[in-house]
Amino acid sequence: MERIVIDGPRRLFGEIDVHGAKNSALPILAGSLLSGGETVLHNCPQLTDVDAAIEILKVLGCTVHREGKTVTVSSDTMTQNEIPEELMHEMRSSIVFLGAMVSRRERVRLSFPGGCELGPRPIDLHISALQQLGVSVDESHGILDCKVEHGLHGAKIMLAFPSVGATENIMLAAVTAEGVTEIHNAAQEPEIVDLAGYLTKRGAKIRDAGKSTVYIEGVKSLHGAEYTVMPDRIVTATYLAGAAATGGEVTVRRVVPSDLESVLPIFDQAGCKMRIWQDAIRLEGPGMLHAVRNIRTLPYPGFPTDAQAPVMAVLTVASGTSVFVETIFENRYKHAGELCRMGADIKIEGKVAVVRGVKKLYGANVRATDLRGGAALVVAGLAAEGKTRISDIVHIDRGYESIEQAFSALGAQIRRER
Ligand code: EPZ
Fold first, then answer.
1. Is the dihedral angle over the CA atoms 414, 415, 416, 418 positive or is it negative?
2. Tens-digit pLDDT profile for residues 252-301
3. Does ligand 1 come within 6 angstroms of the Cβ of 305?
4. What's 47's domain CATH number?
5. Is residue 118 domain-shared with residue 218, that is, in the same domain?
6. Per-residue pLDDT tens for 331-389?
7. What's the CA gap between 74 and 99, in Å, rounded?
8. Ligand 1 pocket test: which of 164, 170, 189 has the largest number of ligand atoms within 8 Å of its C-beta?
9. Structure pTM?
10. To test the ligand 1 pocket, which listed residue (110, 159, 161, 232) has its Cβ within 8 A of the most ligand atoms?
11. Under a CB-based contact definition with an 8 Å cutoff, are residues 312 and 346 in contact?
12. Do 13 and 48 fall into the same domain?
């Protein structure tokens, strides 16, 4: 069983490029299923979740070629209409393939994606939206059996919650549907804008992606395109968290600072000094971090739920008490117990986490509970006194390209041991 071992504390110094965004690459790879030409995707991150998405494309009959950070997909050879159960369970977000699949096939079968470490991951918003676009969905025995008997047609869809995945599935199904689709209360995350950028390059007609109402005019067919995935804003926040927690000075490059408009003020309130360029951010951690009174996770442009765990790791050693309110997922504090094993003082009460700053953390044997929770343990280990061993790091590899090499390049004593 692989583990990450960290000897701390070590202040981080240096510069690092941020890799492509997992949460943009995945829906774009799903979009490569849409008929018409070849997709050449640059800056595609080397992550196990991306490997799983490529596996799904191959199982569906697509030709996929990967060369470093460039993935080339030709989906004209798509022959299958079913994603095997084991692949659906390997990556819960593979539900985002549904929208593109129903635009290609009259019958699509997927196993229900099931829950994950963040709690039950319902897909009611996905299903009701696709039904409005002309998909009949039968859910039984854990299988989603979808039929498109009279083709897909545009609809005016009101989302009860600005679900990122549901917004993406609607976009993927609507771009070649008959007529106009409106998505009201759409997710506004930068990854939505990136997906729209890719689809538009392929000839789709999409207006106001990134706003709360998105308009899509269906086109007969798409053509091939080359596209470059946006930088990963959560990986950016994680690297900055490492600098903040260790009192170091790190410059993250090839980033979009405006994607972090609700995260940077939190580092500022915690006492970090920052300098911002067009595609880079330098953060200098203070000698003593200050607590941040109230951090509430919200849909974009609010504070992102994916940054909650890494930022909590930073604030465990701040002076004063910080309060988090996790409004997006039901069960996204599993990392708190592991941080407490390292000496943190965190009390969880439902959606609220009260983090009372302690003087220092101590190395310990801990377990990654989920992707961002695992990243939080790495951040904590960088600042902790002594040796931290993190197991179950498969979670971390889903969303971070070789996290130990990234932090080692910034001066951390960190390694992966088999
Ligand atoms: C995407 O998940 C991201 N994953 C998540 O990142 C991210 O945390 C989340 O958006 C919120 O920003 C990918 O993009 C692959 P949602 P998604 O649909 O699409 C409820 C990471 O760490 N909901 O916006 O699944 C749902 O239960 C991952 O990189 C319904 O109730 O998020 C949750 O409470 C973790 N019914 C909330 O909405 C539905 O039909 C947010 O879900 C769909 C969602």
1. negative
2. 999 999 999 999 999 999 999 999 999 999 999 999 999 999 999 999 99
3. yes
4. 3.65.10.10
5. yes
6. 899 999 999 999 999 999 999 999 999 999 999 999 999 999 999 999 999 999 999 99
7. 18
8. 164
9. 0.98
10. 161
11. yes
12. no
